[in-house]
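User: Before I run my own analysis I want an independent prediction to cross-check against. Here's the chain; please return only the structure tokens and, at the end, one sentence I can use as a sanity check.
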Amino acid sequence: MTKIQPQILKGFRDFLPDQMVIRQKVIDILRGVFESYGYEPLETPALEYAETLLGKSGKEAEKLMYLFKDSGGRAVGLRYELTVSLARVMAQYSNLPLPFRRYQMQPVWRAEKPQRGRYREFWQCDVDIIGTTSPLADAEIIEIAYRSLIALGFKKFLIKINSREILFKLLEEAGILQEKQASTLIAIDKLERIGQEGVAKELVAKGLTNQTIAKIFTLINQTKPDETLKQVFRILQLNKVPSEYYQFTPTLVRGLEYYTGPIFESFVYEPKIGSLCGGGRWDKLIGKFTGKDLPATGITVGLERIVDVIKELNLWPDIKPTKTQVLVTIFSPEYLEKSIKVASLLRSRIKVNTELYPDPEAKLDKQLKYADKKGIPWVVIIGPEEVNNNSLTIKDLKNRKQESISQNKLQTYFNQLK
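Assistant: Structure tokens:
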């Protein structure tokens, strides 16, 4: 028999239980923040028709899409991100109440080169509001990003804010033709990474003159927030978002072409891992499906980078590797029934996550080693001595202590630990 090599594709990952504990906690925290602002959950299929995905996010994005024909000969693709699927939903279900607030937490796929913080399959946690052009909506999205990062335990981060309207006005003043605006913005977006000299070289390669390039840099240095962003900043102040956590950044571009107004990204100072959140206003995307524009704004919180930073900075040092709180052992087959009853009591009445060891023949030492290896903090033992005394022995594996308690005090014991 030929052995199959156990392996996964590059850019894809398995998440073992100790990793899933962190991921699930992040999702739970984000869900709580999103719902506190009145956002409702939504899920969409992993596969969309290719025509749904194409012509929305830009040519650079389309190079990274997984597109293929299914067994029925239909042109389909794995979703590249969640916003286009949301736009399709808004066009397909026209009776949804407006403004429509939704959050969505699902995987997306991109055929890009894997590197630190970049994967081919990863989760996005999106929050969007559809149906209003008010700066209140843009400010709310930025505030949600701030509240989310604070709730996750981040202390040092910055939300950079700009507007596509400001950028397009800047390009017009510099005399950039419309067909070169998108590529010029891609170069400007690299200013912090490769510096002014590096951006200038890219712009020369795109056919811009040195005089035009100099004018672009002059205009960038002179650019200030427009009236919409001024309103956004005032609302953030009213909502007590500290000013040290956000700033106007005239070189922020955002890569996707469907953005039309305010745009934003959040970064941590350490480690250097790229943006944790990113989004903006996208007022023209839904109209590609319906022929009638519907305003929208939102942001994506990147689960993968959030988790990577939490682990690297050790933000959650006390998180347990398992959600199981108690292992009920089986001393021997003759005590199986009593162990089953105690495990059931812990789960149903005391509401404690409880495992019952599944092998009545296993030696007690093996069961204790299992609990210790898995990181289960407490073990309950019911042997002949405990049965005779109507008691239970509880081992605290973390502190290496044990005590005997009366069975009728089991609930009191674990309620004190909650």
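Sanity check: The two ends are 52 Å apart (CA to CA).
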